[in-house]
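User: Hello! I'm new to structural biology and keep hearing that structure can be predicted from sequence alone. Could you demonstrate with UDP-N-acetylmuramoylalanine--D-glutamate ligase? Please show me the input and the output so I can see what each looks like.

Assistant: Of course. The first part below is the input, the amino acid sequence of UDP-N-acetylmuramoylalanine--D-glutamate ligase. The second part is the output, the predicted structure written as tokens.
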Amino acid sequence: MKTLTNFPYQHVLVLGLAKSGQAAAQLLHDSDVSFVINDNKAFEENETAQHFHNLGVETVTGGHPLSVLDGVDLVVKNPGIPHHHVIIAEAELRGIPVVTEVELAYLLIDGPLVAITGTNGKTTTTTLIHQLLDEAGLNPLLAGNIGEVASNVVRQQTSGQPVVMELSSFQLKAIHQFKPDIAVLLNITEAHLDYHQTRADYVRSKLRMLERQTDDDVVVYNSDDDTIVSHLDKAKAQQVGFSVKRRLDHGVSNDGQHLFVEGDSLMAREDVAIPGDHNLENVLAAVAVVRQFGVSFDVIRRVLTTFVGVKHRLQFVKNVSDRLFYNDSKATNILATSKAIQSFTRPVILIAGGLDRGVEFDSLIDQFTNVKHCVAFGESADKIVEAAQRHQFDAVTTYENLQEATEAAYQYSEPGDVVLLSPACASWDQFDSFEDRGHIFIDVMHKL
């Protein structure tokens, strides 16, 4: 497996031992780089810290003393740790660079790198790009925020093998040398303000992966997104747009009937298997990327007529007594849930709620044209009810947890309805992850 060579740092702090921290620590250890681990979980309950301690690595657990920064010339932090954290703030005061694990992964990559980010659609687009490149025989690797820790994946890369990497704003905020050959900007709306604190910081973080690109590189971008378009004047890379709203002479687009690539008809819109207009954005972006690799129209058509999406993203689960159950647990913000609702013409029983991040839900209620009942749960349930009341939407009820909410949604539904879990909130009030939330929804549904 690959290790770091000519690494310019002498003593590293790994802050946080979630999956990315564990992978970073293992890479540093295998590369004979001196480092210290700092994690908030007590040593007695911390199997990962115990593992590295037994390997001879200095571990500091149960708190975050500033002394862990003494002698350190690089911090590799867990993406979820905000930059106002005491250790990060102190590191920045001391002039110590702070990166996320993807920065280490980048130092190992030997081949084309495709990096995908956006507020919504990242996982679907990343998965589709990977599948298209795989179908074309290019043997790509899948990495990043999609669940595969980048530095683990790229350690196994062979020379020239493409890497397709999903990236969050949390990861991108702390990069320095990282530069994709093809950057993909799907969309940018307001999200994660509890972490970034301002919209400007969130936008800036998303756009960081363009900063080091050159005119040999490519940025694939949503030409319908005003925020993205307004920042492209500083981009040095070649620009390839995509649009779901209008036909483009260059790039990839849709006129409502057909998909076009550089003005040439690719296929009929109705032959694209994945549902929803919002997913068409993901499809067009993926097509724009793989055309940079020369993937043929025949391969693209073959995949697009069979690809139906990914788990936890508008995933059709089962027909129960003529109710269609969909798992959209990955919809962790209002825009994602709004787009999910708009994907259906049938009446929808919506299950929503989760971590309260201080947002209001009025813009979500505005999309309830085909929602006949909303079942709210979790921390934000009362806020959803309050927003519904402001908009005179009375068909909303609250439940303590997802199991009760799912059982209630079934009771509120009638034959022909869609029962949709699309929470519009993060999962961390009651679950370890959105995947955990989705699995529980499916388990409850199978027991109905």
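User: So the tokens describe the shape?

Assistant: Right, they're a compact way of writing down the 3D structure. Reading them back into a model, for example: The longest helix spans residues 277-291.
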